[in-house]
Each structure stands twice: as structure tokens, then as C-alpha cells.
Design goal:
By secondary structure, this protein is an alpha+beta fold. The protein is built from seven helices and 23 strands.
Amino acid sequence: MSITSSPSDYSLAGTPDYSAGIGFYTDYIQVADLLQVPRFDASATYPTRAQVGNIIKRVEGMVDDKLKRSYRPIITKKEIHNFQYTNRPGMTLYGGYVGFIQLRQMKIQKIISLQVWSGNGYKELASAEAQIQLLENFRDIYSITLQLPNSGVEFEMIAENTVGSLGNDEFCNTFGIKTTVNDIISLINEEFPSTRQYTNANAAKSLTSSNLSISDFFFAQKEEGNGAKILVSSLLSGDDGSDCVVKIKTQQAISTSNTSTTLTVADSSKLVAGMGISGTNIPSGTTISAIASSTSVTMSQAATGTGSATGTFTATNLSVPTLATVTNFTDKEDMQRTGDYWLLGEEGRIFFLQDYPYHTRNSVFVSYLAGNNRVPAAVHEAATKLVAAEIIRHDDQSVLITETGANISTKEKYDILRKEAMDILGSKTDIVYFLD
């Protein structure tokens, strides 16, 4: 039985922020108190809070690796598994599953993507997913927006075709389709871009809206074998993400005539009926009713004036000819004991029943969110001691940490703290037994 909470659990000193010295398992206050030194300052001490935060971040990663589980949210991307048939398909009513895979992490919160080989490609079994495939005129895309359900927060990713002007909240479309896809994926996942050798990026991508981060709600990856297609999964629980929205914006020179529903455009082959229109002399809520000719479209409302300007066209859950093919967010998940698959999240094990791989080798790709919502006192204690030990190891033995009256050297302090921490982690390591 899993423990939901305990009075001994570690309580965060604030929102986790490594740059402020606050991690998920410990913080600068706890470390300073253990070392019996003044609390680390933002700038007036060495190490600073930010430097302590960097140590905390490294230590928490080491703790996760040691325990084979995480007590902070961790996304594992495209973990590859072989598939072993345990029962014959015809016997699954009695055995409960055809076969299973064991994930490398435990405490699984959500299966983001579960792709199995279906004979001629990988089939998605999990999560609410949208697909965006860039086409030959992808550079005419002004922006791609992912919107939360119920007309919620919008995360607009704006395209930039000048490398020197590229912001961390934009994607670069200067190069080819596959490089652009990689940059969009890095932006959605808010990670250091894999395209940095081309774009000269020197920091991780970051996109926030209404104080929310895009990577907290969406996860992106390329379709296996198709470098032009982006698979976007919602991180919302269950099928809630099926109500998310994809918007594609493009801009063109337009001309309006007062009281007329005819709109002159630069190239209607890159537009589609149903797109929203905004710009000078265009009433709010106007859409394209029909494509009239190669250089004109019919609007749902008449123009309020005559003139020329730049118009913005927005496709909501629509494909745009020659720019992008869009598949709306669709719930693909049938996770239940009698469905496609089922999950033992505590153990990190996925059992396949109705849908399963057609081959055994490298036949399953899975991306998932792992982590526990509680930090046990033992994990907090081990992390605090490891951080303290690292600070002692890097200290010059005169600025921060001094010898004690008991004649315990700083090296002995380091050894004691590290041994105690590793002993704690060793006692918390899980052993998983496979019984058939």
C-alpha cells in the first residue's frame, strides 16, 4: 500500500526555483542550518543561493538515478522497449494481458505517448494528441498557437526568419522543414534547442502566457520516420486534452472596399474557408466564407471602409493548404483492464491487451510523466546532506566551513555526510519482482 502523506514529509520553502536556491527535495535554508552557517544570500555569500540551487539540482538528479524513481515531475522521452509475449492473444481473458513492459521509472503520473509497431508504422495508443505537418510553404506561417480547453490560455509561438533576431520564445524557420520542426518541438518542451548550432541559441526555450508555461500543459515529439510531422500531446489528465485547440496564423497584403464582402488578397491558395480574418476595416468575428478566385475571398461580413493593409488569417483546428496539415486534438487513450492497455503506475509497468506490437524488437516507444507528489523525510534528509557535502568539498576550509572543536576535519565531515546520505538512499531503493 502506498503512503499518500505523512506529517514527516518535507514541505517546500516556496515554489521550486533553483536560481533562488529552492529545489523539490531541499532548499538553501535547510542546507545552511545543517552546516550551521549563516543562510546563503542572493549575492553577498559564496556560494550564493543560485550556486546552491545548481548543486541542489544536480543532487536531485543523482537521487532520482539512485532510487530509480522521482519525487519531482520528470518527463522521459521516447524510451525504447522490446516486447515479450507472455500469453497467447486468445488466452487474454484468463491471463489478463498479452505481454507487458517495465518502464525505467516508477510512480507514473501519466502516459504521454505510447507508440507500438503495427506492421507498417507506429500506432499511438495514449493521450489526447494533435498532429501538425509542415508543408512546402511553411515559411508563410506567422505563428502556431496551442490553446487550453474552454477558450483558455493561448500559447502563441511566433516564427522568426532572421537568426540574429530569434528570441527564446520564438521558433526559427530560416532553414528547412525538419530543422524548423526540431525548433518548434524545443519551444513546446521549453528545452535547450537541438538546433543551436544553426540558430546560435545560448539558452533554453521559454514560453509563458498568463504566468503559465507551455511545457506544463503540452509535450511534443517528432513522428518516428517522418521528420516533418510534430506530435503534440496534452499533459492534462485523461481525455481532458481532447478539447485543446491548434491555431495556424498567416499574414498577407489585403485590400478592402467599403460595404463589400469581397476581400482582395495576395494569394488565396494559402487560405481556406473558415479562417478568421483580422485587420483594418475588417469587423470583429469575420471569417472566410469562400475562396472566390486566386486573389480574392468572400468574407462573412462586409468591410467597414476602403483601403489596403496587412491582414491576419487564423485557422482554428483547420489545415492550411501548402502551409500545414493539422489533425485536431483527439483522445486516443483506451486505458482500462479490458481496453487497449492498462498501467500499474506505482510499479511503472504497462500491460497490453487489445492492441500490442506486431514485432518484439524495438517495437514500443513510450514517453511518460513520472514523479511523486510527496517528498519523504528520508529523501529530504539524504538530499540535504549530499548538498552540504558538496559545499564542503568545494569550500577552501576558511571562508565558510571551519574545523570544529572536536577536531573533525572538513574531509571527515564530507565523508560522514555523504556516507549517511548514501546509506539512507540505499535503504529506500525499490526491488521489483516479476512473477508470472
